Amino acid sequence: MNQPVVAGSPYPNYLVWSIIVTVLGACFCCLIGAAPGVVAIVFGSQVGSKLAAGDEAGARRASEQAKLWCWIGTALVAVSLLWTILSFFIEGASFMSQEFLEQVRRAQGR
Predict the structure, then answer these.
(1) Which end of the chain is more exposed for a tag (fewer CB within 10 A), N or C?
(2) Which residues, in sequence order, are CB contacts of 88 under 8 Å at separation 6+?
(3) Three-state DSSP state, 71
(4) According to the UniProt entry, where is the signal peptide (predicted)?
């Protein structure tokens, strides 16, 4: 009846979030966007080893740093995604306006 209680880490390592940010950062903003994700992966991977070594304060700091770098990477990815969407519409609008001008010129020439 008494089952052992498995205690999870008191500090999250943010590895999933940091890996997602790294991949999206590499897709949208090259190495600049992927760099914060890589830093977050490094700090996130330190959380478990520091807890295992008994360094609870170090594990807490590593977790906080991983979270900070995940947020920085997320912000860069969000800005890059917005920039990509905005540039797509600006380029698309300029292309469409050139086409419209050509149609107007042809209509006036008839």
Answers:
(1) N
(2) none
(3) helix
(4) none
Residue 63 CB: number of other CB atoms within 10 A? 22
* The pLDDT of residue 45: 95
What is residue 8's predicted lDDT score, i.e. its pLDDT? 64
Counting every residue, how long is the chain? 110
Q: Which of 4, 81, 73, 5 is nearest to 41 (CA)?
A: 73
Q: What is the per-residue DSSP string for 15-63?
A: HHHHHHHHHHHHHHHHHHHHHHHHHHHHHHHHHHHHHHTT-HHHHHHHH
In the chain, how many domains are there?
A: 1
- pLDDT lower than 50: segments of the chain: 1, 4-6
CB 74 within 8 A of CB 29: no
Is 5 part of any domain? no
93, part of any domain? yes
- The pair of structure tokens assigned to 54 is 């008994």
CA dist 48 and 34 (Å) reads 23
CA end-to-end span of the chain = 92
Look at residue 7 and tell me if it is in a domain.
Answer: no
